[in-house]
Design goal:
- The structure is a homodimer of 325-residue chains.
- Chain A contains twelve helices and eight strands.
- With 325 residues, chain A is of the alpha/beta class.
- Chain A folds into two domains: 178 residues, Rossmann fold (3-Layer(aba) Sandwich); 92 residues, no CATH class.
- The first copy, chain A, has an eight-stranded mixed beta sheet with strand order 3-2-1-4-5-6-7-8, with helices on both faces.
- At the A-B interface, α2, α7, α8, α9 and α11 of A face α2, α7, α8, α9 and α11 of B.
- Chains A, B: It comes from Cryobacterium suzukii.
């Protein structure tokens, strides 16, 4: 972990942050606030909407039992927040800013400029945007070097993943500081080296979602069938092994290499509306090398882990579904 | 459940099946055999490969602890199987046939014709194919009316989903019988009314997989990042709520309608290489109506269920990953 970075872009150690500003208090913004509170921080919420304060209170209270179950930091309290309608007031004295305003580009551009103007030098400002690039959002800010994307998943207080990426004008130090900070507070961080529309997880789930919409549009499957095809199928494997490791195991003892040899031709099949890339030797070797780099355990060990996970996941899900009945 | 169906296509009640033939004993075929054994059936395995018998023995033994944990039927034994190299011998007296040979169309066509010729009238024959249509596979069979696709997911002894669909010459009675039988033995069945390449779950996971291959091909993400973006992100939600219900909740209290209004424009964004369908009024209303039909509970109840599931899944996965260390 990098503790000291560039003076201008990202000042101070991640461990020294005490107070965080949450700009925008919808589902995502208030979810972030709840998470930061559970980690023992003081939170200053900015939201100009009438009735924002009781709504934030309600969202934090709704999240707190879950956060308590996962374990609170010492001194964490659901009451350690204030709600503001003035941005300068909200960011006063904070060590980090998380912006979670509605997904409207111009609104984000103006808001990030306002936040930047009001926030002390060297404090990193992250945006929860689910799709805009920081290059596009930072156009009106005076100090774009400290603006980064810190993209969470709903609900941000339960899903560990945060995708961190900068824009063209973002300094590497600010990106590194944000990645370090999220990791420090227990997040699973993917630091991207370049801007890709939709980042990584959204591109993947968006491909799936678009295929699902096509199927509904064409009367090929119902909403219920689409959901159950995932919950009772591949969805049971994905919490333990992502799509790459899953297909590594589909190759049996031969792993990904065998899988690509055996099922590679199916990339030409009309199994989805998305055309696959040409399975060149380079791509094949890159995928195999990537699996080898990501996973040193044997196929047998992975199968044992997968089976244990599927059983455990099925058992807890069955229990939760049973409560529904 | 339909117990009595057409005399010629699907004779007998699903509850009367005692013995099942598993044709082909690779990962999928032997996985099916293990599942059928755990449900108390006698299994007759056909596999012409040298050394098939000890391999089947080994695969069943590897699956048995998991099956024991999930609960065995009365009288279930991992020893209630025989291995044959003659098809007529393997299908003698069975009440159901599950074919799981390698994914080579001509091989499947010939094998299904041979199975059909050797199997008693009225016994339904299912293929585990992950991608061929039964219309294409049944071309050489004398009685294509009893040939259905029964597509499982790896490992078939742990993943509940089975997609059931017929070919052009398959009788509705045989499709219904297969769906009833799989349900009877505890599977989560999706009965499709028409042939769609890749069925449902494979189309969805294949869209995701192809997008992932493109990202690797273009240096946009590593194998490790792709996997973790799912395991630590959307993958934690998918065992409880499929992609449609997940996005229903992304709309907050407004549900899917609000989600499509708010995020609908992002379908035009280059967030994946798959073009989305036009979000017409008809499609929008079909998606909303589909969610309403699939899910009568309130958004609040679904959020409570989702949060409980994510916590429970995270806890069991953390425990399993902890064992690794």
């Amino acid at each position: 972990m990098t503790d000291f970075t560039s003076e201008t872009d990202a000042r101070g150690r991640v461990a020294d942050v005490r107070t965080i500003a949450c700009i925008g208090a919808g589902t995502i913004g208030a979810g972030w606030a709840a998470y930061f509170l559970a980690k023992g921080y003081y939170v200053r919420v900015w939201d100009p909407a009438p009735g924002a304060a009781p709504k934030v209170r309600q969202l934090i209270d709704a999240a707190w039992p879950a956060l308590t179950q996962l374990g609170l930091a010492e001194g964490a309290s659901p009451d350690n927040f204030t709600v503001h309608t003035d941005i300068a007031e909200a960011v006063a004295g904070v060590g980090f800013v998380q912006e979670s305003a509605p997904e409207v580009l111009e609104l984000k551009q103006n808001l990030l400029a306002d936040i930047d103007a009001a926030t002390a030098d060297g404090v990193v400002i992250a945006s929860s945007t689910s799709g805009y690039s920081m290059t596009d959002m930072a156009t009106r800010a005076t100090t774009p070097s400290r603006l980064v994307v810190g993209h969470p998943f709903n609900p941000p207080y339960l899903i560990p993943l945060v995708e961190v990426v900068g824009g063209e004008a973002t300094s590497a130090a600010a990106v590194q500081w944000a990645a370090d900070f999220y990791e420090y507070i227990g997040k699973s961080v993917i630091k991207m080296d370049r801007e890709v529309p939709g980042f990584i997880a959204n591109r993947l789930q968006e491909a799936l979602w678009r295929e699902a919409l096509h199927m509904i549009d064409n009367g090929e499957a119902t909403v219920e069938q689409i959901d159950r095809s995932i919950t009772d199928g591949p969805g049971l494997r994905w919490p333990i092994h992502g799509p790459m490791t899953t297909f590594h195991l589909a190759g049996g003892q031969g792993g990904m290499r065998h899988m690509l040899e055996h099922f590679g031709p199916s990339l030409k099949s009309p199994w989805t509306r998305l055309e696959a890339p040409e399975l060149t030797d380079e791509l094949r070797e890159a995928v195999i090398a990537g699996v080898d780099a990501a996973e040193e355990r044997s196929v047998n060990d992975l199968i044992i882990e997968r089976d244990a996970a599927i059983i455990a996941v099925r058992n807890v899900i069955d229990e939760i579904k049973g409560r529904r009945a």
